[in-house]
């Protein structure tokens, strides 16, 4: 049971990180450097997921008694209606493991999610479409999950 819980936590954490970087604001870059940064972020995300799973498996097998630092605060997600079931499952699992973090989500469409991240009213903008060149020029960083 503990091994399954650790795997779920690792998966949820990796997905939250990936979703957070999906539309997190960044500095303006040229299209070439943006593509390079996206490739690096995707490779890094895959490596983090693998590392997290390995660490979770190791921790579960040794049943280490050390506690991780508690997370607190809030996360606001806005965006794609097609990601509602997936996002709600992630939120539920994440908040079960991190009760001091309040995650809220509003499913109003991909465009609204990207707009909310661009204007700073949301931490994560879920989108089921690619970013436009104008959105990228505004500093929104695309990370495909």
Can you describe this structure?
- By secondary structure, this protein is mainly alpha-helical.
- The chain has a single domain, classed as 3-Layer(aba) Sandwich (D-Maltodextrin-Binding Protein, domain 2), CATH 3.40.190.
- It has 5 helices and 3 strands; from the N terminus they run ααβαβαβα.
- The chain has helices spanning about 1-20, 30-60, 85-95, 110-120, 135, and strands spanning about 75-80, 100-105, 125.
- A 3-stranded parallel sheet has the order 2-1-3, sandwiched between helices.
- The chain is globular and about 40 Å long.
- The two termini are about 25 Å apart.
- Residues about 20-35, about 40-50 and about 60-65 have low confidence and may be disordered.
- This is Extracellular solute-binding protein.
- The complex is composed of two ATP-binding proteins (PstB), two transmembrane proteins (PstC and PstA) and a solute-binding protein (PstS).
Top keywords for this entry?
mainly alpha; globular; 145 residues; D-Maltodextrin-Binding Protein, domain 2; 56% helix
Beta content comes to: 5-15%
Instruction: Specify the number of helices.
Output: 5
Radius of gyration, in angstroms, nearest whole number = 16 Å
Structural class of the secondary elements?
Answer: mainly alpha
Biggest beta-sheet profile = 3 strands, parallel
The percent of residues in helical segments reads 55-70%
The figure for the number of domains is: 1
Which fold does the CATH topology refer to? D-Maltodextrin-Binding Protein, domain 2
In spatial order, strands of the major sheet run 2-1-3
List the secondary-structure elements in sequence, H or E. Answer: HHEHEHEH
